[in-house]
């Protein structure tokens, strides 16, 4: 029978479903005939159907076993040898799978061997084995006995052998995707699964980018329940080497800990292909996350566990994955918590590295967060909408970071990261501008602390103004909401929108309309905002600038030039060609501002403070402003030259009901008038203003206290409305005198020097007379230091006046100065400069000899600096402000600080104020202009230019202050009674500290440390505050500059010499003595020592958290990187053990100090508690790391720490507790006077919290040491004694004494005098007897 006849007969019987005939026919056929038929028909489309008929004709019995095996074998060989369509192959294999269970174990083994052979030798185009092998293995597993290569084994053992064989063979790149698909269907143990995943992932390096996504898709299915972390880390290595490191060729200089090894060979695939591959991989990962696979949850859990090592999380690819997954609601909060905590940790770690040389040497340089974001955004995000959306969400979370107490700098840096991302993202991907702008608007409208949002809005407006204009609907909506926002918030919004508003007239018109409306709002804050908005518009508009721009562009168009597509073009299109457009707007703004004179005093005050800036930018407006001010000022000005005083003070301060109300801030009004009058302009002459100001000066000088309505009988501090009115009048008079002094200085020229000098002296005498009257009113007030020469000072705590009523304190508040930086700078110049271009030497000498005026000017300057430091707003950080700081700093430093000794001889109070001013100025520049600190020092100090580097500038500054400190201390010895002289060294040390902390930790910093150490060692200091400042600086620099130091141990030993020890039997060790540490200063030094040791322990705690993260990451590292990670971790563990040993040694001396109950004792107890907490953390970490075969703690000498604590520290601690209790009991027995409430509180806390907490931590430490001993089989308890502090303790010395007294009755005496009972933390002596024997219970 031919093959064709056999085929026809099989189909006929199969269609009829005649099973019996089919079985009879198949059994009658020869095996070779059937195999030949299969080989011929395998390529035909009806092959699956024909196979089905053949298998139906072979029932499951011994007669058909061989026939079925041969047919199946021939089918498999045909599949591997011939090219078939995937659909055909799948159909055939699916039919074969149904016959697998009918095969014998031996036949199954043969087919398994065949599949393994195909995997080893065949190419990737024919993969029929990937569906068959899982079924073969699943059937074999159920067999109890399988023979393979002459060896009998169970089916499970054979399956493990097959898996082991597959893992040993080399997998060609063409079949790894099929292998991954196959292993999805194979049941694997956890170890086998991890091995398979690692081997499949290792093939990434051999694949081209387009081949990665199919394999990842299969791997995500394979790892959907476990070991997904290994996949993500391999993908990280692949894409970082091929994509992100290429996007920015400038590699980060920081050494980061990598989880996986970088590939040695990088393919030549194009960047576009790699980006497309990554986008597809991200899609598969996102789909896996949407299906809720456990691999995503495990990955997020891993990220959370390694967040304490930021460089392990802040990788561009891992960030991309996390941001993509964050769009799924159930993962969003978790992802952003991980990222925010990681970035916060990165910022804090960088700060701690600056503070500690030990941490800096041990830890790698952390990643640059902005650099990572730049690499991420350098990749194309348009095809990754989920990543872009996640990035925007993350930026807003960072931008909204809350500032925890003491961590304001961390929150500020997180906000800066958020702002950086939003500005860069909107600039690179303009399609995100609309959503980002809308969210910023929502945050501003609904938020409370929104400064960071308005700052971000301002940065974006400066960067992409044209793109902003495309979303003007959002901007208009925000502007229209100004009247519903709090005043300060609305003011920030106006400033943020200025770059857009001043460029586009349509938006400017909207803002003007809103500000007009706000000017008459009920809320005074909104009115002040409206005034500020108008003033900012006025100071940002050029009357002639726009006209010139418009005419020039019109000329270009007339000459046939095509207009450029720029911001200026669009501005021109909106502005039109009117040359008077801006001038009309400015005049309109002035007309609106004229109405402010009908507003409250606070609103007008805002007008006076900002009006001058608009006149400076547009001098053409001075005439209008002059008329406006004169018309208003005439309401209070007495034009009659014979009228005294020249101002109607009772009209400026009126009585309303039971209180006085300020109607007009005359001082600020007159100062604003003099600013306008002294503005250089050729357009108009301020003759009217000058005449008024001159008349004011001459008539104010003629006024006596009686002219102002002030006399000795006036009680300013009374609560009556009239007295309140008099208080406010005095403040206004002082402000008027200040404004007139400002006018005199501002209009000072060389030709008028003699006249101006005489007038300035007279004005200051008038000011001093009124100020002295205010201070001397009610003699109960105390005169403060430096209140000499009648100069008024800023409000201080010691400016209080005590009223006759007992317990009631009334304060006369001096007004804030009306002067500005320009006037104070000119005052400082005339006081301290050798020669001034605008003043003659004779006139200057008349001013320089006035000590009171010098103090007044420095105090006014200091007051302005403190106000600027408190107002942290972007508008205050302008270049003009920096120039003012440079001008003032140059005069103060060159003429006051460098000549400090001369000033001390002239007046110590003036010298102290000059130093305080310079320190405040330096701190202000560091806070607001840190990036321009080199420019500031180059201009101010002058000895070292900015080009030579900031370090040299700061070191020169420190050197000068060291020289000054040495000289001043010698003068202090001669003038021991002058308080101001004693204050100067403190200010010098404060300056040295400020300068030194800005120096990077290099040779210059170590030179300063060397000098400070010698100073403390050799110099005897007579002021405890000076000792505290110097030692604080010494400890801080030692921590910053040296990884290991014995300084703290020597200080602790010196304290033992001064304070005595609890255990007097211990011999004192040799140590270096420091002259500054002497009797009387012990507690102050002890507090500083406790603080620095606390910092060291906090760094250890920080490091241990990082170790746990690195150990977690190490467990997922690949084999070729594992050993290097282990060695790195071991090295760092050695450093931590050494550092904590040093802390234990220091506290060993501190715990032996004979302390008296008090704050110092409480500080020591808390520090000891912290020490044992850190020891417990370290012990728990080694429990995690150590095993019976590998006790990791032994290699890093942790046993030495256990020995130090067990044999030395813990006994000292128990002795210290006993000493404290004995001292407390003795003190309670001798003290009969009424107890101090603070002392009682300290005693209660000590007994109920500090000591119990300490004992608990000791016991916890001992508990975990025992656990570590059990786990590692290393007897650590041989170094320790278990806790002896319980409710009952045996004092061996007392027991020995009792035995010596009564040896004869020792055996019979039941009284043991050496046992002392303790109840509720108190030591109470008691007699302990043997417990009575229990009576037998009657049955």
Automatic annotation (TrEMBL):
Domain (FANCI helical) ranges: 296-378, 569-775
Spans annotated as Disordered: 775-804, 1299-1339
GO biological process: DNA repair
Database matches in InterPro entries: ARM-type_fold (IPR016024), FANCI (IPR026171), FANCI_HD1 (IPR029310), FANCI_HD2 (IPR029312), FANCI_S1 (IPR029308), FANCI_S2 (IPR029315), FANCI_S3 (IPR029313), FANCI_S4 (IPR029314)
SUPFAM superfamilies documented for this protein: ARM repeat
Pfam families: FANCI_HD1, FANCI_HD2, FANCI_S1, FANCI_S2, FANCI_S3, FANCI_S4
Gene Ontology MF term list: DNA polymerase binding
Domain FANCI solenoid: 67-289, 387-535, 818-1034, 1048-1296
Protein name per UniProt: Fanconi anemia group I protein
Species name: Cryptotermes secundus
